[in-house]
């Protein structure tokens, strides 16, 4: 278990980097009529929703896509490096429940585009980085929980 705990800083760093890439790299490609192609990143999707007047949807997507995962990573970093870890690790559990919501939404959007016949769609690097960040942060939370629980 000591080796796993020693890997915690690397896992947290990788999760943070993957989260950043997941926000700015294209999450999917949508091609229609063999001429038009869009490769939006998560940030571009949020910006587009906001500019089109869909501010409520943009706020909800931003909350679950950016704010919750960023807060989770921040809490994990605080828990890993602060003396009162138990207090912080318990809070991570609340944020973890929303971790894979965005990956599911993108998967559903791609499925809908493919089955509608109006466009072809495929995943891009951004969604894979985002998913990796989610899994790495879940792994870090598990390591911290075990360390706090005394399984070290």
By DSSP, the count of extended strands is 3
Output the radius of gyration. Answer: 18 Å
Number of helices, counting only DSSP H or I runs of 4 residues or more: 7
Number of domains: 1
Low-pLDDT stretches are none
Instruction: Write out the strand line-up for the largest beta sheet, numbering strands in chain order.
Output: 2-1-3
pLDDT averaged over residues:
80
SSE string: HHEEHHHHEH
Beta-strand content bin: 5-15%
Helicity range of the residues? over 70%
For the sheet with most strands, the description reads: 3 strands, antiparallel
- Quickly give the structural class: mainly alpha
Ends apart, CA distance between termini: 6 Å
Shape: elongated
Protein name: Paraquat-inducible protein A
Transmembrane segments: 12-36, 56-80, 92-113, 125-144
Pfam families: PqiA (PF04403)
Organism: Bauldia litoralis
């Amino acid at each position: 278990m000591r080796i796993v705990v020693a890997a915690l800083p690397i896992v947290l760093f990788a999760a943070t980097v993957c989260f950043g890439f997941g926000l700015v790299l294209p999450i999917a490609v949508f091609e229609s009529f063999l001429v038009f192609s869009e490769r939006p990143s998560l940030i571009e999707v949020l910006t587009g929703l906001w500019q089109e007047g869909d501010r409520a949807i943009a706020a909800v997507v931003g909350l679950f896509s950016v704010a919750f995962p960023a807060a989770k990573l921040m809490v994990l970093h605080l828990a890993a490096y602060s003396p009162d870890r138990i207090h912080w690790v318990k809070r991570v559990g609340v944020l973890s429940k929303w971790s894979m919501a965005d990956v599911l939404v993108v998967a559903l959007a791609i499925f809908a585009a493919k089955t509608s016949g109006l466009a072809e769609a495929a995943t891009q690097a951004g969604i894979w980085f985002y998913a990796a960040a989610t899994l790495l942060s879940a792994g870090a939370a598990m390591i911290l929980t075990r360390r706090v629980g005394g399984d070290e």
